[in-house]
Amino acid sequence: MRDFWKRFKRNRGAVAGLAILVLVILIAILAPLLFPQSPWKMVQRPFLPPLTMEALPLGTDALGRNVLSGLAYGAQVSLLIGLVSTVVSLLIGIPIGALAGYFGGIVDDALMRFTEFFQTVPNFALAIVLVAIFEPSVQSIIGAIAIVSWPPVARLVRGEVLSLRSREYVEAAILSGQKNSTIIWRQILPNTLSPIIVLASLMVATAILLESSLSFLGLGDPNLMSWGYMIGAARTVIRQAWWLSFFPGFAILVTVLALNLIGEGLNDALNPRLSRKGK
Amino acid sequence: MLKRLTSLAATLIVATGTAYAAPVDGGRADVVIQPEPPSLMLGLVQNGPTQMVAGNIYESLLRYDEDLEPMPQLAKSWEISDDGLTYTFHLYDNVKWHDGEPFSSADVVFSADVFLRKTHARLRTSLEHVESITAPDANTVVFKLKEPFGPFIGIFEGGTMPIVPKHIYEGTDYKTNPANNHPIGTGPFKFVEWVKGSHILLKKNEDYYIKGLPHLDEIYWHIIPDAASRAVAYETGVVDILPGGSVENFDVSRLANLDNSCITDKGWEFIGPLSWLWLNNREGPTADVRFRQAVMYAMDREFAKNALWNGLGAVAQSPVSSSTRFYTNDVTHYDYNPEKAKELLKEMGYDGTPVRLLPLPYGETWQRWAEAIKQNLEEVGINVEMVATDVAGWNQKISEWDYDLAFTYLYQYGDPALGVARTYISSNIAKGSPWNNVEGYKNPKIDEIFEKAAVAVTKEERQKLYTEAQQILTKDVPVAWLLELGFPTIYRCNVKDLVTTAIGVNDGFRDAYIEK
User: Fold this and answer.
1) Solute-binding protein family domain: which residues (chain B) (predicted)?
2) % of chain A at pLDDT higher than 70
């Protein structure tokens, strides 16, 4: 573990990314304490520019709502949806990939054709259709994002399992009469963990972007203040109120960038030999 | 914002002053039409954009001024018998259809008695009071009623009773008649071409029966699907007139403050769009009158008017719009009063049951409005869950009564018997339509008043009955009235006399001219 941290630390970008992410998480957790009032509350006159009032450093939106408070509560929504949908897609992708890689043959064929079916449909279009059909809500958005994001996981896990499958310790386990499920769970999966972790950190970033895009198009949960919603609502007034789309856009940019940097750092830290080669 | 609003109000006042210079002939009006109309055959299709374009091609017997008083159109004069049963119209005698055929009273009889009875549901209901429509001579039409019907003089408007050519439609299948693609009317402008997705071109009717009219040579309707592009088209001078509803409300003050830009919210008096929240009177907290009154007190409607509607329009005080006949201010008023709302909720013992709020899926303004109302209601302790929906879903949910609170707005057509009664009378409760008594309000007294008022002969009698109805309704709050919507028409200030009637741009180009 200490080794891991040492290697991670060497990547300065990753440390910066981690710092930003921790900050965003803190803001998300502390939002109700920092802004006891609902982010939907109309507190001042509409279209108040940033820095005109001390209490409202980022100004107000078309209905006079506090933009800063919206950003803090938006962090909650973005992180929650990013994390949960990633977990759900891992739960779909890992078993499919593991089964396909371990059993091979017809099982592999069937599962991979199924995966490819999802890969051939454009991600975003499928997500829009799913959310529109099931009516926009947190659950349907998480579900839609998970359904469009699991195929890469399945393919990655399958590849890893395929290469581990022929290792001697796996063959030894088979000979010792362990059950297939035990071998996959105990012997193989733990060794695929590092690429999965790297992939997952990037998937959270993608999920945040997807959720923002859906909200931007008006397919977000109408009861939740999210960054994408804020930008979508600001789009029509961009000529008279630049700050309404700028700040949430900046928040998305920074958070997604942080997650990508962390993913890079994790990759370096978890595959030390791989990363050194490149340098 | 406040400053901008005041200057907006100032332009409004300037814009309503009438022109003093002599009209100039010539020129082309570039106008936005949004959305693209499904058809221009006004006798078959009467939705907003169709009326706006085709209202200059087709005509009816009368037009109406801002106070909804009738003015001549195809009829140069008219008489109503003292018993209110016989309406006699004298038509202009030099009117020609756009294809050169002469127009006569036979066309009116055919349109009202045959064609529109078949195609126009709203008019058909009004014509149920009619016993006979006859043409004693080529320039006279007589409508005989079975019983007096107060709003009758108000149904001779272009979108309500467009006169269609008998020589083209008699004996044909109206819906498939090829002439539908090239509308032939009597109006001041003739149809030239319609390039789908691009534009509709109308040109001056040289043989118009009123000498000297119209002034314009052409009207060019631009079809631009995106709201932001429509705003840009006005800014860059591609179009000169933005009829109500063609740009997002958030762009209105910016466009109105451009040089040589004028704005008016007139021209909607006949239609009288009134917005409200349907409140499901059947079940849930909204079945309790105290809850419904609490909703009225909880909403900051003045804020919504200023923040979302640029200060145009007015806070609705009664189920009858103030521009509609028989409006009264002598009703229970609901000013913004959250404390009172909380008291009412406490008194009824509201237990925090969440209510579903259905926004109107007509764009950003309506979405923001729903968010503001949700916040207003939550601040007095009502738990609101916003439901996301599209137009089809909204229609279905309302028609199937699957909602607690839902946004809508409806037209009033100048008379409570035409546009108000339908929302509150119990005989109009039926699943399947989002425009009838959707809230499920039942009050025999109200049924009786509306029934009596429709057939009462004198104005005074009708006023008395409608005043009573408005007083009862504002006490019962079957729906939560929001705003009398002010749809602004934005135009270059050198376009004169564009909005002179109660239906505004829909028939306004007859008198409009462009000052050089």
Assistant:
1) 69-421
2) 97
pLDDT surpassing 50 at residue B457? yes
Predicted pLDDT of residue A76: 93
Q: Answer whether A139 touches B (CB < 8 Å).
A: no
Whole-structure pTM over 0.90, yes or no? Answer: no
**Preferred mutation among B1, B250, B389, B405 to probe A, highest tally of A CBs within 10 A:** B250
**B388:A137 CB<8 A:** yes
Q: What's the pLDDT score for residue A8?
A: 86
Interface check for A219 against chain B (CB to CB < 8 A): the answer is: yes
Residue-wise DSSP of A77-127: HHHHHHHHHHHHHHHHHHHHHHHHHHH-HHHHHHHHHHHHHHHHS-HHHHH
Residue A16 has pLDDT above 70, yes or no: yes
The C-alpha atoms of residue B323 and residue B508 are separated, in whole angstroms, by 19
B282 touches chain A (CB under 8 A): no
- Reference B475, options B346, B335, B361, B334; nearest CA is B334
Which chain A residues are within 8 Å of B379, Cβ to Cβ? 41
Quick check: A236 and B248 CB within 8 A? yes
Token readout for A276 is 């050194």
* Portion 321-360 of B in contact with A at CB < 8 A: 359
At B165-177, the pLDDT tens digits run: 999 998 888 888 8
Instruction: Give the per-residue pLDDT at B311.
Output: 87
State yes or no: pLDDT of B390 exceeds 90.
Answer: no
Outline where DSSP puts E strands in B183-306: 189-195, 199-204, 218-222, 241-242, 261-264, 274-279
What does the alpha-carbon distance between residue A49 and residue A47 come to, in Å, rounded to a whole number? 6
CB-based contacts of A259, cutoff 8 Å, min separation 6: A17, A21, A201, A202, A204, A205, A208
Closest to B439 in 3D by CA, of B424, B420, B422 = B424
Q: Is B138 a residue whose pLDDT tops 50? A: yes
And the tokens for B4?
């901008």
> Which residues of chain B lie closer than 8 angstroms to A240, CB-CB?
250, 254
Chain A within 8 Å of B372 (Cβ-Cβ)?
A: yes
With contact defined as beta carbons under 8 Å apart, do A190 and A172 qualify?
A: no
Band (pLDDT 50/70/90 cuts) for residue B16 is very low
